[in-house]
Every structure is written in structure tokens, then in C-alpha cells.
Amino acid sequence: MARATVRALAPLALVAPLALVALTGCGGAAPATAPSTPPAHIAAASAAPPAPSASASSASSSAAPATAPEPAPAVTPLPASEPVRVRIPAAGVDASPVLGLGLEADGTVQVPSVADGDKIGWYTKGVTPGQTGPAVLIGHFDTARGPAVLKNVSKVRTGDEITVSRADGSSAVFRVRELEQVDKKRFPTAKVYGDTARPELRVITCGGEITDGHRPDNIILYADLVG
Q: Of 31, 46, 74, 33, whose CA–CA distance to 160 is shortest?
């Protein structure tokens, strides 16, 4: 799996390497016996309004604005507690245990291995799900072995729930507010990793049609804590 050459200097500076390192391994030549992979695009009705600089290859550049879900209710942030299980019913995801993703010795961000394609990883240098700020989860859409844990991300819609079970026995329930598909070269660093005033969640995977052995886009789910 390829690794980014950018070194992490601060939490926000980790965005670029994380977006590239964690997800550039998606795709590749799958074995002839591997099951077919579902569509690697978000639904037009679930996409955010396109940004002026969005890539023409990204779904968000041509999708109609999504109907905004009900505003997330005010909730009390949770204390720190590591995630142990992630459930996204709309995508058929029920992943446990959750991998811890830190930094390699060279300053690049660790990524789930191909062997762990059925697992979700949590970026440990950020907040835990439920704390104030953007907690970040990462999973493969597919690998050289075939479809992976987030293979059905295209089925997720705004308003769907994501439940993260935590080590302290509590659960953090998030509601998807927005889905975005962007060219990896235009990854929205500040939007994904910038500080927030409330507990939020990001789920990141790959998308787009395979080009030169890799998927060119990132699909990002933005969700707010609701319970």
C-alpha cells in the first residue's frame, strides 16, 4: 500500500497524509473469483451542493443538493472513551474490534492493512467518538482482495444513523448530515479535520472508478452526535 511523503507536524497538518495514506490502497486488481464490487459513488440525492472547485470526476460536482435533515439536537458531549464497535445499518456495517490508527516512525499515518479490509480504523490522534470535535473513522471500500467493509457506502443517505460502541460501555449515536465525494487531490482538509463546537463524526473511504489501479476519489460521511 502506498504511503504519503508528507510528514505530520500538528493535528490539522495530518489531514493531507491521512487522506492519501489511509485510502490510496483501495482498488487494484482483484482475484478473478472475488465478488463484484458495488457502485463506488454516492447517490446524487445524498450529495452536498457542489463546490466551485470540485473535480469533474467527483459525484458531488454533478449531484443535486441534498435535502437537509432535521438539525441535530443539542446533546452533552461524552468523556473520552475509545471506540470498540461501529455499526452503519444502511451500509450493512457491523465492525468490531476497531483498529487504532496512529503514526508510523517516519511521520506518516498508519492505515488498515489489506488483511484488515473488513475492519474500521479510528484515528487516535483525534478525539474519541462522542467528544467535542471531529472523530475520524477510516475503512476500505475495496482492496486487491475484493469488496471491503465500506463496500455499500453508496446506500447511505442523510438522516441515517451511525452507532459507535465505546470501551466504557456507552454508545455514541450519530446522524448523517452530509455525504461528499471529492477528488483526493482536492481533499477538504479544514472541513474534515478542523475544530468543531460540537461532537461530530467523519467516516472516510475511497470512491470513483478505478484508474491506474486506484480509486481517485474519497467519499466522506459527516455526522452529528444525537444521542
A: 46
pLDDT band at residue 227 using 50, 70 and 90 as cut-offs? very high
CA-CA distance, 211 to 141, in Å (whole number)? 15
Q: Can you read off the three cell numbers belonging to residue 36?
A: 463484484
- Residue of 105, 104, 113 lying closest to 140 (CA atoms): 113
Least Cα distance to 29 among 217, 213, 212, 216 occurs for 213
**What are 133's three cell numbers?**
470535535
Judged by DSSP in three states, 19 sits in helix
One-letter amino acid at 134 equals P
Measured distance CA(120)–CA(94) in Å, rounded: 9
Tell me the C-alpha distance between 49 and 65, whole Å: 4
What's the whole-model pTM score?
A: 0.78
- Grid coordinates belonging to 206: 475511497
What are the grid coordinates assigned to 101, written together? 490508527
Q: What is the 3-state secondary structure (H, E, C) of 72-140?
A: CCCCCCCCCCCEEEEEEHHHCEEECCCEEECECCCCCECCCCHHHCCCCEEECCCCCECECEEEEEECC
Q: CA 146, CA 186: separation in Å to the nearest integer?
A: 26
Cβ-contact 42, 59 below 8 angstroms = yes
d(CA 139, CA 25): 11
Of the listed ranges 17-26, 57-66, 180-189, the least confidently predicted one is 57-66
Integer angstrom CA distances of residue 40 from 34, 51, 75: 16, 20, 33
